[in-house]
From TrEMBL:
It comes from Biomphalaria glabrata. It comes from the Eukaryota. It holds the Pfam family Lectin_C. This is C-type lectin domain-containing protein. The keyword Protease does not apply. Coiled coil: none annotated. The keyword Signal applies. The gene is 106070535.
């Protein structure tokens, strides 16, 4: 390679880098890592597609779980898609203390007693819009089954483990 082509090669590589890794994505990952370092007990969990700053917490009732996470600058973790849900499932693989296949997630029923929404942005959960859970059941929370890999209804008054998430 001749030296007069080197600047062009560098510019092409830089352009490719900026195209493949847009600023928003680089900034979000950097901000996430900084937030994770600031919060004691939190660590980065990731797979090939997703990075999350999480802290695993032993079982408690859902209302206490929300308070616990908010006191630490976070929220009960949302696992909205299969890639995110795999992070939770992978955490439990091969753990001898694994007693609870279920864990609370940040998806609960609103005061209208009809709609389940994610706690981070109140985006409705389409599965429960298409097949609503009857309002008289008293099931206002949800859990993620890390064994069967499904989201399902849960009573808010039972003790389940959960993850706190910082963004």
């Amino acid at each position: 390679m001749s030296y007069h082509r080197l600047p062009i090669t560098i510019l092409l590589l830089a352009a490719l880098f900026w195209k493949v890794f847009p600023f928003e994505k680089r900034y979000t990952v950097t901000r996430l890592m900084a937030a994770c370092k600031r919060n004691k007990g939190f660590e980065i969990f990731n797979n090939s597609y997703v990075k999350k700053c999480l802290q695993y917490v032993l079982p408690m009732k859902y209302a206490k779980a929300k308070e616990y996470c908010q006191a630490r600058g976070g929220m009960v973790a949302t696992f909205k898609n299969k890639m995110e849900q795999q992070i939770a499932a992978d955490f439990f693989k091969g753990r001898p203390d694994y007693e609870h296949p279920l864990l609370y997630i940040g998806l609960d029923r609103l005061d209208d007693l009809k709609t389940f929404k994610w706690i981070d942005n109140e985006e409705p959960y389409p599965e429960y819009i298409e097949k609503p859970i009857p309002t008289n059941v008293g099931v206002d929370c949800t859990s993620y089954d890390t064994f069967d890999l499904i989201i399902g209804p849960a009573f808010c008054t039972i003790n389940l483990p959960f993850f706190c998430e910082v963004r």
